[in-house]
Design brief:
nine-stranded mixed β-sheet, Alpha-Beta Plaits, two-stranded antiparallel sheet, binds iron/sulfur cluster, Radical_activat_CS, transferase activity, 4Fe-4S, TIM Barrel, EC 1.-.-.-
Length: about 300
């Protein structure tokens, strides 16, 4: 820790798309989760598709729209178009918010807000008593929070200046330089390993897993505590063989003895329509409890502590 500057630049700006309070599933104690925009992956089951780009996005609630056309009139770029699938052409939208101001039926909303570290800390500070009493703190999530590594670093330094515990939920997809800079500021790293096979990984997430698996080793050598998390997705990795392979890989990491299995859910599926996107996993069912217990037993066979859920 001797190489860390004691001060932090609280004027640094980052794009934040959600702040979730009173979470008990994302690290020790009661935590506030700051969700940061930007992600190099495109997982088909992503429950935060509005976070993937590093820019604010307008979301359209078709059920509220009365077709008045106000939004089209004020849009300076032609992005707001009632004939366009999903209503907003995101390739043209500059997120000026003019359409939202004139939509009196609340059919449009902006996701993603540029905030300084100071502004975000002001929000996080509201729950400081709960962090202290519960042994909780701040969890950063995404997207992939390390995409905005300069902002993230200053945020983590600010949290540490208050003595709060810090955790991250990460895809593990970042350069080794960024990982070496960020991980020492975290008390807990919760990293996804989604599949061992590079081709299947690429088909469902848009990227090869080679860098992620390498980074898992690097992160495990730097982290104070690391937990591997596996989203269990039917048709992708929900099989005893795949989970056994991920559990085996986990045993090769430095000082990692915990793996969490996160059963698939479709809670974010409605957001795809709001972004004019297709939800490719429509109709996929949540894995049965009995099956999850079977997978848990496979993980435990490798000598790992296994939990189903967060
Ligand atoms: S945010 Fe601005 S650019 Fe984007 S659709 Fe609305 S009015 Fe058009
Ligand atoms: S202003 Fe709102 S209600 Fe009117 S057409 Fe646009 S999205 Fe629909």
């Amino acid at each position: 820790m001797s190489n860390m500057e004691p001060s932090c630049d609280t004027s640094k700006k980052g794009l934040v798309f959600n702040i979730q309070r009173f979470s008990v599933n994302d690290g020790p104690g009661v935590r506030t989760i700051a969700f940061l925009n930007g992600c190099p992956l495109r997982c088909k089951w992503c429950c935060n598709p509005e976070s993937q780009e590093l820019k604010p996005v307008v979301m359209f609630k078709a059920q509220n729209c009365v077709g008045c056309g106000n939004c089209e009139v004020v849009c300076p770029t032609g992005a707001s178009n009632l004939n366009f699938p999903g209503k907003i052409d995101h390739t043209k939208c500059i997120a000026c918010g003019k359409c939202i101001d004139v939509c009196y039926h609340r059919a449009l909303e902006m996701s993603g807000k540029w905030m300084t570290v100071e502004e975000l800390m002001g929000e996080l500070y509201k729950d400081r008593v709960i962090y202290r009493k519960s042994g909780g703190g701040i969890t950063v999530s995404g997207g992939e929070a390390m995409v905005q590594h300069e902002f993230l670093l200053e945020l983590l330094k600010a949290c540490k200046a208050f003595g709060w515990t810090t955790a991250i939920e990460t895809t593990g997809m970042a350069s080794p330089e960024v990982i070496e800079k960020i991980i020492p500021w975290l008390d807990v790293v919760m990293m996804d390993i989604k599949h061992i096979d590079p081709e299947v990984h690429k088909e469902y997430t848009g990227v090869n897993n080679e860098a992620i698996l390498k980074n898992a080793l690097l992160i495990s050598s730097l982290a104070k505590k690391m937990i591997i998390r596996v989203p269990v997705i039917p048709g992708f990795n929900a099989s005893p063989n795949v989970i056994a392979a991920i559990a085996k890989f986990t045993t090769y990491l430095h000082n990692v003895n915990e793996l969490h299995l996160l059963p698939y859910h479709d809670l974010g599926s409605n957001k795809y329509g709001m972004l004019g996107k297709e939800y490719e996993l429509a109709g996929v069912k949540k894995p049965e409890n009995e099956f999850m217990e079977e997978l848990k037993a496979i993980v435990e066979k490798e000598g790992l502590t296994c939990k189903i859920g967060g």
